[in-house]
From TrEMBL:
CDD domains: SDR_e. The lineage of its organism: Bacteria, Bacillati, Actinomycetota, Actinomycetes, Micromonosporales. Residues 270-289 are annotated as: Disordered. This is Putative NAD-dependent epimerase/dehydratase. Pfam families: Epimerase. Residues 9-248 form the NAD-dependent epimerase/dehydratase domain. SUPFAM superfamilies: NAD(P)-binding Rossmann-fold domains. Residues 273-284 have a biased composition (Pro residues).
Length: 332
């Protein structure tokens, strides 16, 4: 296979937690890989990919079209999740709307056929886009009624890609993710999710706190399994195009149980007693969704692609703790 015969995969937002992990995996494949981010991108050496790195502000006029020119596949990981306060984004957060919605609209207009076929876009959605949920596990057939600002923006971007697919301009699939956690693929990629946040607290000897009694369940996905899901979506784009799919372990865990497992993992590594796990009053900015359990049924994606979760939760927690402890040691 010549260099020109290799598919061109473009990763937007390649320095983020998930974007850097997918970049590291794709760098080992026989593809052309263009990674785009505002910060310097660290791509693992020794891989099979032909790699091009670009530092760019994707919101600057004309930048996005050049970044995705000639792409066979685009993975748009650029997103704004937190607002100026460090918490959730708000309705008046203009940079969030531009990043989460307008950028996807521009992407859909910028892409064109490559090698006679519409390009593939694998969009990282969120399982919270569905909005209020009932008692049964989510399987992707539910009507969507997104509640929060971020969820509404993700949903709007997903609809743009579905409409472009229906018009024959793209082959887009949305992979709706649960909370993803694990070791960061690059030193610039910080996992600020609930699992890593609690692991850092436990390593610092601080108690782990919950805004409820610990029975609220979450389906928590290890980053390696999330990366394999994106690779599976790329490989099965024709079968998946135009739809959204939920992925997860299919085994939601009570957060109290997860936090105690984190405390035990840190204790095994440090030789100290496990830190306590406590319930505390919720802050004023807590939302209803923070107190609802979310169970995921990923059967549709599994059937279409053959993808499976492979990392047991206890192993995933141990690997996360080990990685965070190592990063703290390196800083010292």
């Amino acid at each position: 296979m010549t260099a020109a015969d290799r598919p061109l995969i473009v990763v937007l937002g390649a320095t983020g937690f998930l974007g850097s992990a997918v970049t590291a995996a794709l760098a080992r494949q026989p593809v052309r890989l263009r990674v785009v981010a505002r910060r310097p991108v660290a791509v693992p050496a020794g891989g099979s990919a032909i790699v091009e790195t670009r530092r760019a502000d994707l919101l600057a006029p004309g930048v996005l079209a050049g970044a995705v020119a000639g792409a066979d596949v685009v993975l748009p990981f650029a997103a704004r999740i937190r607002g100026a306060s460090g918490w959730r984004i708000t309705e008046d957060d203009e940079p969030a709307r531009r990043t989460n919605v307008d950028l996807i609209d521009e992407l859909a207009g910028a892409l064109g056929p490559v090698r006679g076929r519409p390009p593939v876009v694998v969009f990282p959605g969120s399982n919270t886009q569905v909005g209020k949920i009932g008692d049964r596990p989510l399987d992707g057939t539910e009507p969507d009624h997104p509640q929060g600002v971020y969820d509404r923006q993700k949903h709007a971007a997903e609809l743009i890609l579905k409409q472009a697919t229906a018009a024959g301009r793209l082959r887009a699939v949305s992979v709706r993710l649960p909370p993803v956690f694990g070791p960061a693929a690059a030193s610039t990629a910080d996992d600020r999710g609930i699992v890593s946040t609690m692991a850092r607290r436990a390593l610092a000897g601080e108690p782990l706190t919950m805004w409820h009694d610990g029975t609220v369940r979450r389906d928590l996905l290890f980053v390696d399994d999330a990366v394999r899901a994106f690779r599976a979506a790329i490989g099965h784009a024709d079968a998946l195009a135009g739809r959204h799919y939920l992925i997860g372990t299919g085994q939601a865990r009570p957060l109290g149980e997860v936090f105690r497992s984190i405390a035990a993992s840190v204790a095994r590594r440090t030789g100290r007693p496990p830190v306590p796990v406590r319930s505390v009053p919720p802050p004023a900015h807590a939302e209803e969704s923070d107190f609802r359990s979310v169970d995921i049924d990923p059967a549709a994606f599994m059937k279409a692609t053959g993808w499976r979760c492979t990392v047991p939760i206890e192993d995933a927690l141990d690997r996360t703790v080990e990685a965070l402890a190592g990063r703290d040691r390196d800083r010292d």
